[in-house]
Amino acid sequence: MGKLQLKPGVVTGAQLDELFAYCHEEKCALPAVNVTGSNTINGALEAARQANAPIIMQFSAGGAHFNAGKFLDNTGERAAIAGAIAGALHVRTLAPMYGVPVVLHTDHCAKKLLPWIDGLVTAGEQYFSTNKEPLFSSHMLDLSEETLEENIEISRTYLERMNKINMFLEIELGVTGGEEDGVDNTDVDASRLYTQPDEVLAAYDALAPAGSFLVAAAFGNTHGVYKPGNVKLRPDILKNSQERVHTARKTKNSKPMYLVFHGGSGSDPKEITEAISYGVIKFNIDTDTQWAFTKPVKEYMDANDGYLHSQIGNPEGADKPNKKKIDPRGWLHEGEKGYVARLIRAFEELNAKDKFSFG
Ligand SMILES: [Zn+2]
Q1: Is the pLDDT reported for residue 282 higher than 90?
Q2: pLDDT for residue 182
Q3: Which residues of 149-171 are buried (b: 16+ CB within 10 A; e: fewer)?
Q4: Average pLDDT in the 247-267 region?
Q5: Which of 45, 154, 152, 31 is nearest to 100 (CA)?
Q6: How many domains does the chain have?
Q7: Where does residue 19 rank: exposed (0-12), middle (13-18), buried (19+ CB within 10 A)?
């Protein structure tokens, strides 16, 4: 199979389906990185340019609020809605300048956060009416804390609405362990960290007629990076889930589901490769890229310590100005470069580097 040709800009609808099917075929996955503002968005665009591969950018509700400004009141998720829209427009304006395709997505949305997605779907419908494509490529609902029936039913309702504007939906079955963005699953019962293939089949039956979707199935994966503990990663759950649906519904494709690997930070490359072979096409990475941004900033501060105690006066002289060192652009760009480098490593580990051509 030749390299998949994609246009720079935001990938949606049939083209997104083609992209994920190609990833299945080529046994590669795309990094889905959490972005929180222009520094991380531009870093993600640059990483995609250097890797010659599309990138998935996602806003969490907290990240979207941050993009709008932590100063803003967030009653009814209004700041998180505005922040996500502003971020999407930033991506849409700059992706063609970088010459890269981007999948625009939002991360975990629990039941109490549904007003956030309601606002974004409404914005997506408005955008669609003038531009014939949605603002975002996809959203995620995470109703894994609810019963399976309720999770599937609410997800189906959203997918039916989103499908009308060519949007995809990601759902979560089972629970991703660990803690992220204020959601703490560190104490959850261990059995819930493993999705049952029958749950995946039930979701498939309800969602497949409604539109295109991705499944985040829990296979012992955790958010954040912790000392290796008592939860064992079981990628075979992903394989069994694909087989369950393929056999029960006699699907043409032996991998009928687009699967998502949450909590990818700190993962072993061999486990990543195995998960991809079972149909993972989206690999979430956050903690590792947070660290990759922060580490060079700390190094900058440490290396320039003598210049960062006052505006005037440094090791070169008591009357020397420090303007060049205290400009935040200096240390923010160091963070951006660390972020880009870590994402390029992710593209390599996900087997996605240089697999695409843009034009
Ligand atoms: Zn996650």
Answers
A1: yes
A2: 72
A3: eebbebbbebbebbbebbbbbbb
A4: 93
A5: 45
A6: 1
A7: buried
**CB of 109 closer than 8 Å to CB of 172:** no
pLDDT value for 199: 94
Cα-to-centroid distance, 178 and ligand 1 (Å): 10
Which CATH number belongs to the domain containing residue 235 in this structure?
Answer: 3.20.20.70
Least confident of 41-45, 99-103, 115-119, 179-183: 179-183
Q: Are 95 and 134 in contact (CB under 8 A)?
A: no
Q: Which of 17, 107, 118, 286 is catalytic?
A: 107
| Model-wide pTM > 0.90 | yes
23: tokens are 């990833």
Task: Give strand pairing partners of 172.
Answer: 216
CA separation for the pair 184, 172 (Å, rounded): 15
Domain that holds residue 252: 4-358
Neighbours of 301 (CB within 10 A): 14
> So what's the pLDDT on residue 332?
98
Q: Minimum mean pLDDT among 50-64, 155-169, 220-234: which range?
A: 220-234
Task: Round the CA-based radius of gyration of the chain to a whole number and report it.
Answer: 21
Q: Looking at 16-100, which runs of residues are DSSP E strands? A: 30-34, 55-59
CA of 263 to the centre of ligand 1 (A): 6
**d(C-alpha 161, C-alpha 150), whole Å:** 17
Top-confidence residue, 326 or 191: 326
354 catalytic, yes or no?
A: no
Distance 223 CA to ligand 1 centre (A): 6
